[in-house]
Automatic annotation (TrEMBL):
Family: Belongs to the phosphatase 2A regulatory subunit B family.
Bias-annotated ranges (Polar residues): 449-460
PROSITE patterns: PR55_1 (PS01024), PR55_2 (PS01025)
Organism of origin: Prunus mume
Pfam family, one: WD40
Species classification: Eukaryota, Viridiplantae, Streptophyta, Embryophyta, Tracheophyta
InterPro entries: PP2A_PR55, PP2A_PR55_CS, WD40/YVTN_repeat-like_dom_sf, WD40_repeat_dom_sf, WD40_rpt
Residue ranges of the region described as Disordered: 442-465
Signal peptide bounds: none
Name of the protein in question: Serine/threonine-protein phosphatase 2A 55 kDa regulatory subunit B
Its biological purpose: The B regulatory subunit may modulate substrate selectivity and catalytic activity, and may also direct the localization of the catalytic enzyme to a particular subcellular compartment.
Length: 514
């Protein structure tokens, strides 16, 4: 199977394109003060830009989804905005503001399995917009929900036409309720001429001050409504959801199965991948991540705990037991250890926007794969090589099982992923680039920048196109401080059309631009 696109690596660029980006702080939401204790429910567990980059969604361990919207593009004309999206060299200060939030999931209890189901949001995926409304999918360990967020006009009573307390003080109410003039049973006053029926409808020239009429106004407010709930389809924890390019279907993946859903049908799904063996003792690997191809609706990829990526074609069969392509790196003889399989487990995969490359993140490295070359990764980026001597300690405190996400820039020239001490790394993946920048999620992101090697080191193996870059064996930051393994930057997202990054550090959302 061959899919058109660019070359193995992004095309060669000019010297300006290959130079490292200078990242600047843009803004932060939910910044902690010194000594402030972070509540577990406030820790961000998912982050996602929409297709346009004008909206950003975050999910937290408390089951809430918070939406932010772009504000610095609203004053520009449409033509200028199109030009800005076409030219990445335009650098402007991105600004987002809080839009709304809603409770997506609540804690549940599975009585059949005596299992508590956390409300934590595992993944968020934006869907196509329609009629000015926003749509997104959110999932916890067991249940996926389809949300519609729309502005609605709500009629509210802002005031009354008269203050009731003043009316009572002025005796207006009493004068009407206790009239001294006798009235007939039909309400016509004896002193009024009966021959003039129009007098019955006369209103005093001063009006009726005690007649309270509400003065209403229409206010626009955002309403989040759950349109559908996709439940009871996974025996194991859901680790991935991904929208199809057809705009009608999506997949959900757990440790052993991948299901295909239609957005309009919540009570039925189709199992398209099942790796569960007849005897569970024969289980050798589990599914760790899955994602649809960005343009081909029949193709998807999923990764495993053994460091492999499988590309499958839905046209081949209803149950995709076999794969079209298998991507895995050959093991170097003599390098196997107790931790080899643990650190080889892929925690996240992302397709490039052009659909030609796949980016994967395992515990130690980022790998860039070309889907037309299954002999090995095109490039390998060392994220935190200094941790290799500390694997025993990381295994003891379970940090070795942390699942870091990865992302690519919209133009495919750079990739990024998180690390410890609230740090994240940005690598250039254009041919000839040596960019390997270390940044910290703070208001001064460049303060922990590590010097990058002048030339990329070539692999000693028989994979001629592989680049291995970014190794930092110091075991400490640029200031000589030891790394903090309790503060980890697991979630980050790259703006789809600009060099702008959103990073989740504990309960804080940091925004950067270059």
């Amino acid at each position: 199977m061959n899919v058109g696109g660019e070359g193995l690596l992004a095309p060669a660029r000019s010297a300006a394109d290959l130079s490292p980006l200078e990242w600047k702080f843009s803004q932060v939401f939910g910044e902690r003060t010194a000594g402030e204790e972070v509540q577990e429910v406030d820790i961000i567990s998912a982050i996602e830009f929409d297709r346009t980059g004008d909206h950003l969604a975050t999910g937290d361990r408390g089951g809430r989804v918070v939406l932010f919207e772009r504000t610095d593009t609203k004053d520009h004309g449409g033509h200028r905005r199109d030009l800005e999206r076409m030219d990445y060299s335009i650098s402007r200060h991105p600004e987002f503001r809080y839009k709304t939030e809603f409770q997506s999931h609540e804690p549940e209890f599975d009585y059949l399995k005596s299992l508590e189901i956390e409300e934590k949001i595992n993944k968020i995926r934006w869907c196509q917009t329609a009629n000015g409304a926003l749509f997104l999918l959110s999932t916890n360990d067991k249940t996926i929900k389809f949300w519609k967020i729309q502005e609605k006009k709500v009629k509210k009573v802002c005031e009354m036409n008269v203050d009731a307390s003043k009316s009572v003080e002025n005796g207006a109410v009493g004068s009407l309720s206790a009239s001294s003039k006798p009235s007939l049973a039909n309400g016509v006053c004896k002193e009024r001429p009966i021959s003039s029926p129009s007098n019955d409808n006369l209103i005093p020239s001063g009006g009726l001050p005690s007649l309270h009429l509400p003065v209403t106004s229409h206010e626009t407010s955002l309403m989040a409504r759950c349109r559908r709930v996709y439940a009871h389809a996974h025996d194991y924890h859901i680790n991935s959801i991904s929208n199809n390019s057809d705009g009608e279907t999506f997949i959900s993946a757990d440790d052993l199965r991948i299901n295909l859903w239609n957005l309009e049908i919540s009570n039925q799904s189709f199992n398209i991948v099942d790796v569960k063996p007849t005897n569970m003792e024969d289980l050798t690997e589990v599914i760790t991540s899955a994602e649809f191809h960005p343009t081909h609706c029949n193709m998807l990829a999923y990764s495993s705990s053994r460091g492999s990526i499988r590309l499958i074609d839905l046209r081949q069969s209803a149950l995709c037991d076999t794969h079209s392509k298998l991507f895995e790196e050959r093991e170097v003889p003599g390098s196997r250890s107790f931790f080899t399989e643990i650190i080889a487990s892929i925690s996240d995969i992302k397709f490039a926007k052009n659909g030609r490359q796949v980016l994967s993140r395992d515990y130690m490295t980022l790998k860039l794969w070309d889907i037309n070359m299954d002999s090995g990764p095109v490039a390998t980026f060392q994220v935190h090589e200094y941790l290799r001597p500390k694997l025993c300690d990381l295994y003891e405190n379970d940090s070795i099982f942390d699942k870091f996400e990865c992302c690519l820039s919209g133009d495919g020239r750079r990739v990024a992923t998180g690390s410890y001490s609230n740090q994240f790394r940005v690598f250039g993946c254009s041919e000839g680039s040596t960019e390997a920048t270390t940044l910290e999620a703070s208001k001064n992101p460049m303060r922990r920048q590590v010097q990058t090697p002048s030339r990329p080191s070539r692999s000693l193996g028989n994979l001629p196109r592989v680049l291995r870059r970014g190794a930092d064996n110091s075991g400490a930051d640029a200031n000589g401080n030891s790394f903090d393994f309790t503060t980890k930057l697991l979630h980050l997202a790259w703006h789809p059309t600009e060099n702008s990054l959103a990073c989740a550090a504990s309960n804080s959302l940091y925004m950067y631009y270059a």
